[in-house]
Design brief:
three-stranded antiparallel beta sheet, MAB21L/cGLR, 2 domains, alpha+beta
Length: 205
């Protein structure tokens, strides 16, 4: 376990404060955002699920709604809904699927090749949202038994969303998670994803 040392503020923009935390092993940069916890309640704006589906199960839906949500400060005057406690992917591989493996590889590729840096235009939450939509579209266990096929489906979906500059929020209707994203940064990520999709063998071997 690393011990925490000096904490230095790097910058402050809008409601976000970015700090550098020195540990015994390395320096880690962290973004701090004001948040309000709303437990045991589900927001009216999040009309989810819209109708019965095979994924997630009704038991999982009720469990997630019972955990509530958070409000994160977007600016000095605006807040947005956050569903980080909605652990849809807990225990998904008990049926032999490769959901978690696909997500971990995609996250590593994002950090190493597609969208690195301290302020990436594509975040882990974006990747989770893509995974949620694909799990809903492909709810059968057999659709997630072949890692190369499942992984490529995820990357293709991500490429489509980034290219169109539109990623539908999984819980809130008529909301795009890329609405305020820098279009030049999105285009750059889209081009990198396109190059990868032309020859993805090196990652899937």
């Amino acid at each position: 376990c690393s011990s925490i040392g000096k904490v230095t503020m790097l910058e402050s923009f809008s409601s976000v404060v970015r700090v550098a935390v020195e540990t015994s092993e390395s320096q880690v940069e962290v973004e701090l955002v004001p948040a309000v916890e709303i437990p045991t309640c589900w927001p009216e704006k999040a009309q989810w699920p819209c109708y019965l589906k095979r994924w997630p199960s009704q038991e999982k839906v009720q469990c997630i709604k019972s955990l509530g949500f958070d409000l994160l400060a977007r600016s000095n005057y605006h807040w947005h809904l956050c569903f980080s406690r909605a652990k849809l992917m807990e225990g998904p591989n008990k049926d032999g699927g490769c959901h978690v493996k696909c997500f971990r590889v995609m996250r590593q590729m994002k950090e190493d090749a597609w969208c690195a840096g301290n302020k990436p235009v594509i975040t882990v939450y974006h990747l989770q949202t893509v995974l949620f939509w694909m799990c809903e579209k492909y709810p059968r266990t057999k659709d997630w038994r072949c890692f190369p096929e499942a992984f490529l489906r995820l990357v293709q979906k991500l490429h489509k969303c980034v290219s169109q500059r539109f990623l539908k929020h999984y819980f809130v209707k008529n909301t795009s998670l890329l609405k305020h994203a820098n279009t030049s940064d999105l285009d750059l990520v889209a081009s990198k994803l396109a190059v990868f999709l032309e020859n993805p063998i090196f990652c899937l071997e």
